[in-house]
Amino acid sequence: MTEAILLVGGKGTRLRPLTVNTPKPMVPAAGVPFLTHQLARAKAAGVEHIVLATSYLAEVFEPHFGDGSDLGLSLEYVTEEEPLGTGGAIRNVASRLHSGPDEPVLIFNGDILTGLDIRALVATHADSGADVSLHLTRVEDPRAFGLVPTDGTGRVTAFLEKPQTPEEIVTDQINAGAYVFRRSVIDSIPAGRPVSVERETFPELLASGAHLQGMVDSTYWLDLGTPQAFVRGSADLVLGRAPSPAVPGRCGDRLVLPSARVAPDAKLTGGTVVGADATVGEGARVTGSTLLAGAVVEPGAVITDSLIGAGARIGARSVLTGAVIGDGAHVGPDNELRDGIRIWCNATLPAGTVRFSSDQ
Question: Where on the phi/psi map is residue 199: left (φ > 0), alpha (ψ -120 to 50), or beta?
């Protein structure tokens, strides 16, 4: 079937400190690197050959996934020496594609968790005879996204970047970050310089009379660009709200990897993940949160909608809500952290250093 390109070169700046040591697609979600879910879903849709367009911390990907044979895939890796944008990254890997000029190539952004029917997108592309087909989804507030209005047949009529006024919001359909390109379109993208498909390639194709087709699929869709979204996406995978054949266990309230240790009276709910060699102490309560490998939650701590980095330690009776704790950080006992606070990698907070009262 169709081969694919996965765009995994971003720096993940909005996800720091999670991405200080790990590229965004390799941060674990539901117990495995997020990229594993994307690869598994592509494989389930019949994709056999995938080229990964890497850049930031590019050396991390191949040692983990190798040639892809463990996943039943053929994987190749191409690294950008300088950031090239979405279009430039696509063009940069063109030499590794096997498709002929009129054959379809799937393209996925590496930070989108979605229930997209991949086969349906490919079928829409073939049936419409489009040059490029786009997965569109509907959102309540589209101001942070690029709008993609279509006509009655689904043909794209415009690309409108991040509208702010009510008059500019002409549709609730947004670009959802998955495409099917006719191979010849990829070859037409300028080589060797930064190119944005959203701001340059798509508008220029439209202006030249090319056929761009939209397919609205409003099943599960989440941009994992922020820590809060990433934690939610991981929990939704565990709860079964977001589909993936790569979740290493049954869907339910919690996912505890085999080498983790959880006290019998600890309570884990809301799609919580306890990673390899992590520890949850007596009486702790963890809801909708992710504990990465080797993290320690001491007795009596209460953690909600938070992400605890690899090797980090949360002291006894500390309360965390919507917090992000970097790899190797140590939050001492009796701290209260909330409202999106981030603690940097290897930082130390002594006991009782930070406390938010309920009336602040």
Answer: alpha
User: Rounded distance, CA 187 to CA 190, Å?
Assistant: 8
Residue 249: partners with Cβ closer than 8 Å, 6 or more residues away: 31, 255
Q: What is the mean pLDDT of the chain?
A: 91
Q: Which residues have a Cβ under 8 Å from the Cβ of 28 and sit 6 or more positions away? A: 34, 234, 273, 275, 290, 292, 293
* Cβ-based neighbour number of residue 200 at 10 Å: 17
Residue among 139, 140, 157 nearest 148 (CA): 157
Share of the chain residues as helix, strand and coil, in percent rounded to the nearest 5? 25, 30, 50
- Spatial distance between the Cα atoms of 44 and 225, rounded to a whole number of angstroms: 25
User: Does 360 score more than 60 pLDDT?
Assistant: no
C-alpha count within 13 angstroms, C-beta hemisphere, residue 105: 26
Active site residues: 162
pLDDT in tens, 90-130: 999 999 999 999 999 999 988 899 999 999 999 999 999 99
Q: What is the C-alpha to C-alpha distance for residues 176 and 145, in angstroms, rounded to an integer?
A: 9
Give the residue among 135, 144, 297, 115 at the shortest CA–CA distance from 226. 144
Higher pLDDT, 294 or 14: 294
Q: In the Cβ-directed half-sphere of 223, how many Cα atoms lie within 13 Å?
A: 14
Q: What is the pLDDT of residues 190-219, one digit of tens each?
A: 998 999 998 899 999 999 999 999 999 888
pLDDT score at 1: 59
User: pLDDT (tens digit, 9 = 90+) per residue, 131-168?
Assistant: 999 999 988 877 777 789 999 999 999 888 776 777 67
**Residue 241 neighbours by CB under 8 Å, 6+ apart:** 220
Residue reference for tokens 């101001």 = 143
DSSP 272-286: EEE-TT-EE-TT-EE
Question: Rounded to whole angstroms, what are the CA distances from 321 to 95, 131, 163, 168, 246?
Answer: 47, 46, 32, 36, 28
Do residues 303 and 285 touch, judged by C-beta distance below 8 A?
yes
CA distances for 255 relative to 136, 234, 279, angstroms: 31, 10, 13
**C-alpha to C-alpha distance for 275 and 291, rounded to whole angstroms:** 6
